[in-house]
Amino acid sequence: MSEHDDAQLKALLKKHFDPVATEPIPARMYLRRPPWIGYAKAAMLIAVGIAIGLAIPVFRAAPPVVPPTAGPSTFPMRAARAHLVYAPEVRHPVEVEASQQEHLVKWLSKRLGLDLKVPLLTAEGFELLGGRLLPGPDGPVAQFMYQEAGGKRLTLYVSKPNRTDTLTAFRFAQEGPVSVFYWMDRDCGYALSGELDRPTLTRIATTVYKQLEP
Question: What's the rounded Cα separation, in Å, for the pair 100 and 155?
Answer without folding.
Answer: 18
